[in-house]
Amino acid sequence: MSDDEDRKNAEHKAAMQALKAERDAMMAEKTDAPGLLLVHTGDGKGKSTAAFGMVARALGWNQKIGIVQYIKGKWITGERQFYKRFPESVRYEIMGQGFTWDTQDRARDIEAAEAAWATSLEMLHDPELDLVILDELNIALRYDYLDIAKVVADLQARPRDKHVVVTGRNAKPELIAIADLVTEMTLVKHPFDQGIKAQRGVDF
Amino acid sequence: MSDDEDRKNAEHKAAMQALKAERDAMMAEKTDAPGLLLVHTGDGKGKSTAAFGMVARALGWNQKIGIVQYIKGKWITGERQFYKRFPESVRYEIMGQGFTWDTQDRARDIEAAEAAWATSLEMLHDPELDLVILDELNIALRYDYLDIAKVVADLQARPRDKHVVVTGRNAKPELIAIADLVTEMTLVKHPFDQGIKAQRGVDF
User: Fold this and answer.
1) pTM of the predicted model, to two decimals?
2) Is the complex ipTM higher than 0.90?
């Protein structure tokens, strides 16, 4: 090994030692706090997909999961077809009546959103569940299908025995204010710009 | 129903009709192009998690998936424990030797990264697979454990019969340049800032 390689390796080791010390210190001072409220928002992809990745992760720990889909009612999706295979562990409720631009019926959308919120509340209060995904709830809030003040109050009154993930673009500031972790998915480059159709396995 | 409600509903219907027309036009003019290269990068959460959500989605379509984990070798993760249950459908290879700040050994990291890339190439050329996840490849590239020019050339020479997802912060510009879809996960609010430990089911 050359002197230059030796030096590079030694430098790397020192840098990694410093990084490890920093990380260890950070992990040591944390307190364990269950029951986080997570929000996935932004115009990019991956908001629902990351929530469905958390479902896989939770299943790996033999946890139980509740999923309420607010909007994507009419699509057949891979995630739905997959997680429906685990009815003992996953309660999967599809409450939305399809995209709002398909239904074009505000009264019906409000009714569907209210039924979905009732089911969500039931899950939030179900001590059996370890994780609850409220998929595309943000869209129902954005169109005022649900009262944000009521949703925020209900979320704040929830038992803190499970994690909750809310997805959808345009998360309301009131929701972000009470969330523990907010991630924004931003589009850097998208194949729709380049004339590529939504694809099975990638988009649904 | 009041006049005001009637008006609001009519307005909503018109807006949704316009949205639907726009979306239908967009979907109609797209061409189907298989074999996308997706990159999940940024400092926020959800990069790997969204990739693992795509695995669930692909399993829902009865597809076959290859996963190479470049870095998180030593952690026991929920996703690993879960997807290992489907050996017929998921080839799950854990090549990383743990976080670099744990190993502090550059030569060993390079060796592990090179072995991981060899396995990745095998998967990229495996016609049985529909989706390949190269989890945390960006970290191996960032530390120059792998030559970016070689990785880019290999990716460009790959058969376009499957989707490929590369995850990890600090994606190199050379990789972004050849990607079809790039999403940046940005941290808006994180519980680590508020003294909360990494948690099972959320972070791993």
Assistant:
1) 0.79
2) no
